[in-house]
Amino acid sequence: MAEPSLALRGVERRYRTEAGELPVLRGADLDLRAGEIVALVAPSGTGKSTLLHVAGLLEKPDAGQVLVEGRDSGRLGDDDRTALRRGTIGFVYQFHHLLPEFTAEENVVLPQLAASRGRREAEARARELLSAFGLDHRRDHRPGRLSGGEQQRVAIARALANGPKVLLADEPTGNLDVGTADLVFTELLEAVRGRGLAALIATHNPELAARMDRTVTLRDGYVVGG
Ligand SMILES: Nc1ncnc2c1ncn2[C@@H]1O[C@H](COP(=O)(O)OP(=O)(O)OP(=O)(O)O)[C@@H](O)[C@H]1O
């Protein structure tokens, strides 16, 4: 069978707090395969964001491995790990995290420039993506002038800008009203399925989880159901 797009092997992550050490992940294992959309559903505070940040190479695990298409990210230096993240992983946050002083288009262009794509090509790709999310008329607007749903659509377009293999999302529609959440979530699923990506999407909403291929949860620092 082909290599998983993303694999966690025995991942541990603990935080130092005033009350002592807090072990959040104690040995998390997970395989995400191309074309597979997995829901991450677990109670608040059990480590969903931590798992996503470690899986997305935004935080390093204290032990264990994060393998991206078979490459052990722990063996890479900072620059190579950043390049691997930029080229293979798209991340969508609950709150859009767009850069407020840049237009919608620039927000989708910038990560491409960071990944060494030329400006002209990056702009063409940003326009294509924004158009696919129905945002042609919002291209030149800054995030503050966009609705919550539009902001999240731009954030999704940005996550897809470098043609990732894996999409990770932390409550991507958790900040939207029910109707908008449903629409944006549908567009997100279509974008992920249409591109054959592997995806891990944290949600508190069982109806959204039911629309994904399978569900995993976190219990005592382990992934259950993965
Ligand atoms: N940087 C940090 N330093 C110290 N403790 C942290 C840090 N980040 C997270 N934690 C703690 O780790 C635990 C897991 O947090 P995390 O945000 O991963 O949970 P979560 O399942 O995503 O929660 P929620 O559903 O509320 O977003 C919590 O107890 C949190 O307070």
Count of helical segments?
7
Class inferred from helices and paired strands? alpha/beta
User: What is the first-to-last residue Cα distance?
Assistant: 17 Å
Percent of residues in beta strands?
A: 25-35%
Tell me the Rg in angstroms. Answer: 17 Å
The main β sheet shows up as: 6 strands, mixed
Number of domains: 1
Task: Work out the helicity level.
Answer: 25-40%
- Any idea of the CATH class? Alpha Beta
Strand order of the largest sheet: 6-7-8-3-9-10
Q: What pattern of helices and strands is seen along the backbone?
A: EEEHEEHEHHHEHEHEE
Number of strand segments: 10
Mean pLDDT: 95
Question: Any idea of the CATH topology?
Answer: Rossmann fold
Envelope shape: globular
Bound compounds, please? Answer: adenosine-5'-triphosphate
CATH second-level architecture: 3-Layer(aba) Sandwich
Task: Please tell me about this protein's structure.
There is one protein chain. With 226 residues, this protein is an alpha/beta fold. It has one domain: P-loop containing nucleotide triphosphate hydrolases (Rossmann fold, 3-Layer(aba) Sandwich). Helix content is 35%, strand content 27%. It is built from 7 helices and 10 strands. It has a 6-stranded mixed β-sheet with strand order 6-7-8-3-9-10. A 4-stranded antiparallel β-sheet has the order 2-1-4-5, covered by helices on one side. Strand 7, helix 6 and strand 8 form a beta-alpha-beta unit. The longest helix has 18 residues. The model has no long low-confidence stretch (mean pLDDT 95). Bound molecules: adenosine-5'-triphosphate (ATP). The site of adenosine-5'-triphosphate has 12 residues, from strand 1, strand 2 and helix 1. Its EC number is 3.6.3.-. Belongs to the ABC transporter superfamily. It is an enzyme of class 3 (hydrolase). InterPro entries: AAA+_ATPase, ABC_transporter-like_ATP-bd, ABC_transporter-like_CS, ABC_transpr_LolD-like, MacB-like_ATP-bd, P-loop_NTPase. Pfam families: ABC_tran (PF00005).
